[in-house]
Amino acid sequence: xxxxxxxxxxxxxxKPVVTVGTFDGLHLGHRKVIDTVKQKAGEINGKSVVxxxxxxxxxxxxxxxxxxLINTIDEKIDLLTLLKIDYLVIIEFNTxxxxxxxxxxIKNILYAKLNLNTLIIGYDHQFGKNREGNFDKLKFCANExxxxxxxxxxxxxxxxxxxxxxxxxxxxxGNLKMANKYLDYNFFIIGAIIKGKNIGSKxxxxxxxxxxxxYKILPNRGVYAVKVIVDDKGYTGMxxxxxxxxxxxxxxxxxxxxxxxxSEDIYDKIIKIxxxxxxxxxxxxxxxxxxxxxxxxxxxxxxxxxxYSLNPTRIDT
Length: 317
Description:
Layout: E1 2-5, E2 16-20, H1 28-43, E3 47-54, H2 57-60, H3 73-82, E4 87-92, H4 95-98, H5 102-111, E5 118-122, H6 135-145, E6 148-152, E7 156-157, E8 160-161, H7 164-172, H8 176-183, E9 188-194, H9 199-202, E10 208-211, E11 222-230, E12 233-242, E13 254-259, E14 270-281, H10 288-309
Parallel strand pairs: 1-4, 2-3, 2-5, 3-4, 5-6
Antiparallel strand pairs: 7-8, 9-10, 9-14, 10-13, 11-12, 11-14, 12-13
C-alpha cells in the first residue's frame, strides 16, 4: 500500500475507486465499504483508494468532548495494509480544509487531483462544510464530473448497526468480547515501554509499563489475557489497566504487562498488545502478599485459557 500524506502530494491514479472517511476502528461496517471499493476496483482494473483525515475532524474543530479513538493513525495504516488497499491518502484536517464544501472537495481534490473514477460511501456518510454533502448532493456532483457513485447499506449484527461509537462504549464498559466481535479482530494497543516503579519485580512479576497516545481509548480497568508482540515475536501475558490501588494513592491510569517466560530488556521499544479476554476488575488488596497471590491465580487462569480455551477465528493484528 502506498501512503500519500497531504493534498499537495496527491497524484493522478489510473481509474481510482475511492472511499472517504475517518474509519476509526476499521470495524466490520467499514470493512463492508472497503470490500466494495476493492470489488469495484477489480471490476474495472482500477486502484482501491482510501482517503482519510488527520487529526480527527472533531479534534481539529475542538469539538472532541473527550473523544477517544479506537486506532491511532499508525494503527490505521497497519490495518489498511493488511486489507490490501492500493493507496491511502491522509489529508491534514484544519480549519481551512473544514471550510471546503463537498462540491469543492470533490471538484478540486478528488476529481482534479486524484482523477476520481468511482466514489463509494457508507449509508449515512456526509462530508464537506457542516456535513452538507449528502448522497443526493454527491449524485449531482457525479453527474457533473462523470464519475460513478455507490452507497453501501449498513452492516447489521442481530439488528444492531455496527459503529465506532458502539465499539467505544463496549470497550469502556469492559465488554471486550462485543468490541472484538464488531471489530472482527482483537482490539490492540501499540505503545512505548517506559520506566516504572519496579513493584512487580519485587513480588516476582516484572511488568513493562506502556505509554500510549493520550487520545487512544482504553478498556475499563482490570486484568486481561493478552498476546504481546516484541521485535516481531509473539508472547502470551497478562495486562493490568488501572490505578494500582494497593500500592498507589494517585489517580494516574497505568498500563502494565507481564510477559510470560520473558526476561529481555525492552525499555524504549515499541510493542503491540493484543487483548483477548478480560478476567477480572481492578481490586484493592490489603497488602502486597494478597496481591501476589491473586496475580498467581490470574496467571494460571490465563495460561489455561491460552492452552485449552482459545480457538481464534480472527486474524491477529
